[in-house]
Design a protein that fits this description.
CATH architecture: 3-Layer(aba) Sandwich
Shape: globular
Structural class: alpha/beta
Strand order of the largest sheet: 3-2-1-4-5-6
CATH topology: Rossmann fold
Number of strands: 6
Largest sheet: 6 strands, parallel
Helix content: 25-40%
Oligomer: single chain
Number of domains: 1
CATH superfamily: Isochorismatase-like
Length: about 180
């Protein structure tokens, strides 16, 4: 089995549907938001493109404020399709590696990841930044996506893999995000 390493030069961050109306419905919502914000800040420091989707924002609200403050310069796409990859305007900006976080694991995250894998993108799942209303749905979805070829890992592991070396100029700033 070939093991691919994540590269800041090839990666982009996809944040799926972390919206206000999900706040009381998603198990562990605050943790998903906090971990996603760390990823967004690290991605900005490393100059990764950031794509954010909002599922029917007129009805479900915009991306939550705690996260939106970390999204300066991000491409924000409204969608009604469950897959982010099917949203109008979705583009990988020449990147072929995607870090994915968001909600819900078994619906919009899963369909997005399956479409990205089908398009030959390499996908890393930030499992501590992915949520669902029910833990069983989340667990089964993450296993399904790993079985399909996505790499399951954590926000902290992703940040340090992107850095590659403690001598990287962004090291101290990203380390401060993790602490």
């Amino acid at each position: 089995m070939k093991v691919e390493r994540l590269s800041a030069e090839r990666a982009a961050l996809l944040i799926v549907d972390i919206q206000e109306s999900f706040r009381t419905a998603i198990e562990g919502f605050d943790a998903v938001v906090a971990r996603s914000a760390i990823l967004a800040k690290a991605a900005a420091l490393l100059e990764l493109p950031i794509i954010v989707t909002e599922q029917y924002p007129k009805g479900l609200g915009a991306t939550v404020n705690e996260l939106s403050v970390a999204l300066d310069g991000a491409l924000v796409l409204e969608k009604t399709s469950f897959s982010a990859a099917q949203a109008e305007g979705f583009a990988l900006a020449g990147r072929d590696q995607l870090i994915v976080c968001g909600i819900e694991a078994h619906i919009c995250v899963a369909q997005s990841v399956l479409d990205l894998l089908a398009a030959d993108a390499a996908v890393w799942l930030a499992v501590d930044a992915i949520g669902s209303r029910h833990e069983l749905d989340r667990t089964v979805a993450l296993q399904r996506l790993a079985d399909a070829g996505a790499t399951a890992t954590t926000v902290e592991a992703l940040c340090f893999e992107l850095l590659k070396d403690a001598r990287a100029e962004q090291f101290k700033a990203i380390q401060a995000l993790i602490k």
